[in-house]
User: What shape does this take?
Amino acid sequence: MADTWPAGEMREGIRKVERKRESKRSGRTVYAYKVPYRTPAGKQTSETWSTLKEARAFRDQVRSQKRAGILPDYQAGEVSVASWSAEWLEAVKTSARDSTYRTYRAWLNRHVIPALGDSPVRAVTSSDVQRAVNRWAKTLSPRSVHLTYKICCALFGTAVEAEKRSKTPCRAIMLPELPESEVVPFTLAEVDALEEAVPPDWRLLVVLGAGTGLRMGEMLGLTWDRIDFKARTVTVDRQLQKGKLVAVKSKKSRRTVPLPARVALALQAHAARFPRRPVDAPDAAAGTSTAELVFYRVRGGRVLPVCQSTARDRFKAACKAVGVQGAPKVHTLRHTFASLLIARNVPGKRIQAWMGHASFSVTMDVYGHLYDDPEGAQSAAIDDALGVPEGSSGVVGPGPLTP
Assistant: This one.
């Protein structure tokens, strides 16, 4: 390869460039030789050499490292987003709950892979992700777009950790604005009406949900050994998923909540109707095949856990019977629990702990609108703290304030 090709042109992996500052200083044209290549993390970079001989030696070194597998040959074997998604899902399957794995798999296959699947992982740019988000926004709700983008962020985040690329493309992405949706809890009258409207077998579900704030899976996975009538507490560390006892969704979800007297009485009444019996509910963590679940059903001589779909259907029918407006769910009982605590001025951090929220901000995001903030309350609080001078009514007229 002769040193006669024009500046700026690439030949056999080497680009000839002019060093303008040195050319100006010396009064003649000075050239250098740049060898572009990619790091193991996929970052595009280059090395510049003063002589063509040095540049050739470095180029040959890079090529030999590619052949030896020290540097990935990105041109010879790209890892596509679709291929990386499959590999990533296998890791998710071993570390996440089955429901989480199914959700990730479904949303990847439906939305992420159709938009980005054919692209090399290292080649996806922020503009590509933005175009994908814009595409999703045409057919999905804002919340669904946010969920899809969250999965996309996790996918590329692990690609960075695996050195498939140097940094994530999920940066400075404009997402559709989420609509403001305020939870509407049941009133106490509605809770009483629902308790009467559901079949007797399900009355405890209503009282337990409104009185402890447990999620439906946590209620259906509650066992008698987690209830301490003497200490008046309920320990929440498991939930029922597909007929099996599994750990609750997060570390913060593991909690101990108070057991109100009304809930304790409802539990005792339920126990009289459904005596403690071993239920066919495997608990892999404890290494047992049965557990004494509070809620169970008997089918063909077998004692089985209750299906979540059955609980939903019974509760939905009760809501319709008592004329509850909107689209209430069993989860609305959990909102009711929080609203009752807020109405009685229970500290927000205590509510967060009993609800099992990941952070206090989550509690406030969901239930902040339920806090009563009458006009002037802030000023009154400051006056209570700082005091008002003697002889002053505390009323400031329209004139200017004077010291």
Q: What stands out?
A: The mean pLDDT is 85. Residues 188-370 form a domain with the hpI Integrase; Chain A fold (CATH 1.10.443.10). The two ends are 87 Å apart (CA to CA).
